[in-house]
Design brief:
Number of strands: 9
Structural class: alpha+beta
Distance between the termini: 45 Å
Shape: globular
Radius of gyration: 19 Å
Largest sheet: 6 strands, mixed
Length: 282
Amino acid sequence: MTTLTGHLRTAVWLAELGTPVLPLREGKGPMGNCPACRKNTCGGRPSMKAPGPCQCPAPCHGWAAATTDPTVLTSPTWAPAWRQAAAVAYHPGGAGLTVVDLDNADAITWARQNLPSTRTVPTTRGQHWIYLGSTTSRNGVRPGVDIKSGMSYVRWYGPGTGAITALPDGVRASAVKDEFASHPVAHAIGVPTGAAGGACPHRTPAYLERGITMAEQSITGAQSAIHNSVYRVFLAVLSTHGRCGCLTDAHIKQLFTAAQTKGESLRHCEDAWDNARTKLGL
């Protein structure tokens, strides 16, 4: 049995919390390809093709190598990687999170003026602002600001401080635009209003559809702790779309179907959904 020390101990602890993790070599890069994938004979990194976990035994494909399975993390196959590891990384999208990576003081100042407060983690150059909810990843949305979520990895610097808040729509919008969306667009598309009676904050139906698709992918890609993964995804979806009235029975059925395909019972799906609603006060 592998002795849990240093980075491996941290990785197993995070995995038990439902956070997919992987080892990083010096310089914050992922481990090199395993022998079976040398020179990309396997067809290349999964992130070049489609979302999904790496099927190779060694942690060689960046974010797609991240796992919550302690048996995999402590396996002899992964042992050489942990011996070489300089840090632990995690896949934020796989944990239902988004990290706004602020690389310098100017970026931090901008975030304080434009983004809602949330959990903050100091880094070697700046800060990570962590939000509940996943989205696509994009680097360079403005000087010193990257978005890390789906199909991406982030170095673990610690749990941080402050209460985590829901991912703001401006961050979601910035992942598909050339410039960070600091303000709502002028012409919102009409959609149903929520229980609070306010206008829907989502500017096009595509935001919701993309969010549901990514939620399905997160459930489908979960390798262990399925019930916890389903709950986290439900929580992320409801934190973003639970108050505006956009979610329909068809959307909920999509999520439940994805969860049941992974082995969840209908009762567990209903409990996870109800628990997420209760946590958010819906």
